[in-house]
Amino acid sequence: MSEAAEPEASLLVVVLDTNTAAWERCPLQFDRALQQVVIFLNAYLALKPENKLAVIATNKSECRYLYPTEFTDETTIPEMQVYEQFRDVDTKVLTGVQKMIESGSMSSDTPAGIEQGQSQVSRALSKALCYINRGTKASVNKIWPRILVVSVADDAPREYIALMNTIFAAQKLGVLIDVCKVVGSDSVFLQQAAEITGGNYLKVDTQENRGSLLQSLMFTCLADHFTRSMLYSPHNDLIDFRATCFCHKRVVDIGYVCSVCLSIFCKMAPVCSTCKTKFSFKLVRAPSAANGTSAGKKKPPVN
Amino acid sequence: MAKEVEDEDYIDIDDTGPEGLKGADGGYAWEEEYKRSWDVIQEDESGSLQSAVQGIQEQLKRKRRLRDTTAIQRGIIRHVILVIDGSENMGTRDMRPTRIAATLQILESFVNEYFDQNPISQLAIISTKDGLAEKLTDLSGNPLDHVNALRDKSNKDLAGEPSLQNALELAMHTLRRAPTHGSREIVCIFGSLTTCDPGDIKQTQAALKHAEVRVSMVQLAAEVQVFKRICQETNGLFAVADDEIHLKDMLFECIPPPPVVSAKATSDMIQMGFPIRASNAQVPTPCVCHHELSFSGYICPRCRSKVCSLPTDCDVCGLPLVSAPHLARSYHHLFPEENYREIDVEVHSGAEHSGAGLVCFGCEGEVKGAAARYQCPRCRKEFCLECDVFIHETLHNCPGCV
Amino acid sequence: MGSEGAFKSTIAEYLEDLPAQFCQQLFTKPAACLAIFRLLSTLGKHIIMSMLYLDAPIELTDVLQWAKPGKTKSFKSKIHRLRKLRILVENSGKVSLDPMFRQELRNALTGGGDFGSFGIPATTRDLRITEAWLEKYANEKWEAILHFMVGQNAEMPQPSDSVLHILKMSRLMERREGDMRITNSGFQFLLQDVSSQVWTVLLQYLRLAEDQNMDVVEVLNFLFQLVGLQLGIAYRTDRFSQSQRKMLSELKDFGLMYQQGDVFYPTQLVTSLTSAMNAEHTSNNGQVSTTEMSADGYVILETNCRVYAYTSSPLQIAILNLFVHLVSRFPNFVTGVITRDSIRRALSNGITADQIVTYMTVYAHPHMRNQMPVLPITVTDQIRLWENERNRLKPTASYFYKDFHQRQDFERVYKYAEDLGAILWCNIEKRQIVVTPAAHVVIMQYVRGHRKPEQRG
């Protein structure tokens, strides 16, 4: 029998970046990309009827669930040529995105500290993890959680700590984070997210041909835990785990770390700019290097 | 006085005299009325215990979720010395298979978890047997070294009596060289009720207190006054483990970084290396830590030698090597999320006339009418209990505030 | 789960055996493509999805390199299966999906393709018919059939003729002394989970359709279309062909759907067919609900072989009674013991130990599911031992040679038979050999060629 040990269902949360400003820079049009993502969602649901799905959209000003939602459009009768489950997801995602774009274009107020091309990825990931946490606890059967981030926006340095917290929480929960970066430069944060949680990081070159986003998603991000254990995944060997200093945002090889708040600096400073601690004026070298190897061993006592 | 003492301290005869033995009702603890724990559980209208059990579970969860979130300075850079009792008393079989085997096994996971949560901290292991104290590993930041030392079979050769004083003195000696910006801690695991010391342990205790070393101990047998006193005086924890699981819980309490109380603590800038991963090498090269050939590894940015794993200290130039995520792992200790406020359901639903419950901001799940909801004091978003616990225990991020 | 996998593979095998042009015709319907896709193994699905949006064929050797070392074997077998199903076509070392299949599976995902390929929903519907109602209806129908098979309740109305006919054709029941009696395979059938049972019946229905010279592709397409329908939605029948209506009316008797005039409602028996976990009927809306699965598990098995079953369903009790010695019954639960006698009784009915174990695993109480393995090993091992007990004696036709006069004679024959590998048993001291019937003729010729032997058959 070749169908040995069929794996359990998966729980996928898709974090969809709908930042219009960032999508404008993309050669692939947003509605095209959205269509491809929707096909991907359908393919995911087609894999197993037990597969669970949630879609969270985020842009610069908000972050909301597109699916599942309570909202049902009563007026539409089911279409004839679409599988019912797909139709439900598709309409909710498409109308949800539509609404987000509308409300986004109306209110121009951007939360402080966020630039045009940035999105609230860490908030979306936090929500996704809350959802997964509840989903895995509520499910009687084993369910394998993972997250797919379709990202277009740039990294927001302000989000670093929050994003790192979510990454470690994901690691603890055993959640894989797949990342599909569509435009712009590589996201250093999300690369680390994929690397630490064991997911795949994928940079899609949309200029080459228009179908490649969907093909890449299908090939790398659709596989469940079981399939991944059988197949090679595109591995990114050159992940940069070096830190950027807080003062100049430069990548540093050897940095100076504040012992109180762990801020990283590229050169010595008398006061930590993050926590305002005054440093005692001596550079501490490696603690253990100072240690001799032979520690004084006491003579046995005479009892 | 007697009433307060009851919880923590009723064997402390020296301090409180016979008063210390008094129970909550003023009588002795063993005179207290037998608590009929099963009376607490009440059947509901349909004769089911479900709701009662659920209520108890919720209470437990709630208790867990309230923790101290005041932004205190925590010693992120720690220096912990593990002291393991290697005396014959550790051969007792009240833990499976023996005390020492169970302890070593738990310590292995302790070491890994310790470096997971305190990636830029140091650890050393000391064993005491036959009245001697011996260093198994020196202070270092590489978990593998410690785990290997714990796996050494000779740890299970038990002999004679332990010497707490010798072990503490050796630990203090080791810690003396630790930089002042880091915390100094000693965690002991003792199976013996006696210690065979060369001098007055009170002096050691005073010295420890002076050096601001925090001593914690987990006893496997019973409470011992001397041990407990040392822990108390140095602001450490003292606990007696009931079984393996309890032992693990007690030990793991020492893993989150403790608040800094020391007046002597200074802040420094620590020089650290952030190596890049070397890979795709055509020829395997030896690493400086194990002298084994491998294709991948991390290159020390100062001396260009190759190490196998992070975090560690470079074996050649001694530079602490970490990766940026390692530092990030500690951030949540520094910036804890505020506790959420529980919202009075009656008042709330009365005001809104909804009653149907609301949607949790985190998981988008419906919070049923009667169930409690929790509000973040900063962003005013409301959450269910499940998310509240998850956010504060694992995530350390309020989805509303980030 | 084992038994279910076996039955799923039979539908896959059925498809493999179909002639090529039938497959091509099947692939013209998106619903069929989707249903076939869902029946494949996880790895097979992944291979298809990876190639679905590739336009050019790719080298087979490249595809094989997707697999990690050590997994290539099972990977190859999956590719082989796909080729047998004619989903994957190979052309001079390059592979691609069957163009028709690719087109229609894409259509299934994007919602393109024919009008009404996933059923035509009715505009009006009876609001009383909810999902819960349908579920109850289907379960009642199905359980009535199973109950009829167990044959313990005479008051139960007899199922319709078409149901009886299929039960008889599939040899789940046979007519003995004027009554319908359950057969050994019928007992095995009872212990399967519901979706395997439905598949068994549907396969039988297909074979029956073949015998009646119906268009198999049409039947299959219709079945796959049913599988793709959504629970709780009303569908119109007025565009159905004559034969489709006939099928509808026949399958209706199994509780696969509920018909009301020219509108029908598929039940979870048919909509959850392509799902792997069938003990529960997921509502398929992507929401994680806490009540899933808890409804079905009811058996608690202790290490001391005691069985506690929280059920009041006569059918479930009757099924348990097949292999459990029931001791007492309460309003909402029964207790019993698994004994050697009760297991032997089940074994002699043709039920296998694996089926018993699988049944109890599938219907294990939610509390049991937390432990690994679900059932206590002591009990499952004991059940298997009891099964092996029955296999201690195995009759084999054979020839017995004895009374050799001379030692050399015996040794020569013994050596010759040993070279043939024909010796089943021998005793050198008493000069006796037992050989297989196939070798008997050869040995006789050999013996005759040398010396006159003594032998008895």
TrEMBL record, chain A:
Keyword Zinc-finger: yes
Family membership: Belongs to the TFB4 family.
The name this protein goes by in its record: General transcription and DNA repair factor IIH subunit TFB4
Gene3D superfamilies on file: von Willebrand factor, type A domain (3.40.50.410)
Sorted UniProt keywords: DNA damage, DNA repair, Metal-binding, Nucleus, Transcription, Transcription regulation, Zinc, Zinc-finger
Cellular localisation: Nucleus
GO molecular-function term, one example from the UniProt record: zinc ion binding
Gene Ontology BP term (one): regulation of DNA-templated transcription
Role of this protein: Component of the general transcription and DNA repair factor IIH (TFIIH) core complex, which is involved in general and transcription-coupled nucleotide excision repair (NER) of damaged DNA and, when complexed to TFIIK, in RNA transcription by RNA polymerase II. In NER, TFIIH acts by opening DNA around the lesion to allow the excision of the damaged oligonucleotide and its replacement by a new DNA fragment. In transcription, TFIIH has an essential role in transcription initiation.
Superkingdom of this protein's organism: Eukaryota
This protein's GO CC annotations: transcription factor TFIIH core complex; transcription factor TFIIH holo complex
Subunit structure: Component of the 7-subunit TFIIH core complex composed of XPB/SSL2, XPD/RAD3, SSL1, TFB1, TFB2, TFB4 and TFB5, which is active in NER. The core complex associates with the 3-subunit CTD-kinase module TFIIK composed of CCL1, KIN28 and TFB3 to form the 10-subunit holoenzyme (holo-TFIIH) active in transcription.
Main localization (coarse): nucleus
Entry coiled-coil feature ranges: none
From TrEMBL, chain B:
Annotated C2H2-type domain residues: 374-396
Family to which the UniProt record says this protein belongs: Belongs to the GTF2H2 family.
Highest taxon of source: Eukaryota
Name of the protein: General transcription and DNA repair factor IIH
One GO location term (cellular component): transcription factor TFIIH holo complex
Residues in C4-type zinc fingers: 300-317
Amino acid composition bias (Acidic residues), ranges on this chain: 1-17
UniProt keyword Iron present: no
Keywords: DNA damage, DNA repair, Metal-binding, Nucleus, Transcription, Transcription regulation, Zinc, Zinc-finger
GO terms classed as biological process: DNA-templated transcription; nucleotide-excision repair; regulation of transcription by RNA polymerase II
ATP-binding as UniProt keyword: no
Function (record text): Component of the general transcription and DNA repair factor IIH (TFIIH) core complex, which is involved in general and transcription-coupled nucleotide excision repair (NER) of damaged DNA and, when complexed to TFIIK, in RNA transcription by RNA polymerase II.
Subcellular location: Nucleus
Species this chain originates from: Linderina pennispora
TrEMBL record, chain C:
Pfam families: Tfb2 (PF03849), Tfb2_C (PF18307)
UniProt entry keywords in alphabetical sequence: DNA damage, DNA repair, Nucleus, Transcription, Transcription regulation
Membrane-spanning parts: none
GO molecular function: ATPase activator activity; double-stranded DNA binding
DNA repair as UniProt keyword: yes
Any Gene Ontology biological process: nucleotide-excision repair
Taxonomic superkingdom: Eukaryota
Subcellular location: Nucleus
Span of domain Transcription factor Tfb2 C-terminal: 381-448
Cellular compartments per GO CC: transcription factor TFIIH core complex; transcription factor TFIIH holo complex
Stored InterPro entries: Tfb2_C, TFIIH_p52/Tfb2
Keyword DNA damage: yes
Protein's job: Component of the general transcription and DNA repair factor IIH (TFIIH) core complex, which is involved in general and transcription-coupled nucleotide excision repair (NER) of damaged DNA and, when complexed to TFIIK, in RNA transcription by RNA polymerase II. In NER, TFIIH acts by opening DNA around the lesion to allow the excision of the damaged oligonucleotide and its replacement by a new DNA fragment. In transcription, TFIIH has an essential role in transcription initiation. Component of the general transcription and DNA repair factor IIH (TFIIH) core complex which is involved in general and transcription-coupled nucleotide excision repair (NER) of damaged DNA.
Similarity section: Belongs to the TFB2 family.
Name of the protein in its database record: RNA polymerase II transcription factor B subunit 2
Taxonomic path: Eukaryota, Fungi, Fungi incertae sedis, Zoopagomycota, Kickxellomycotina
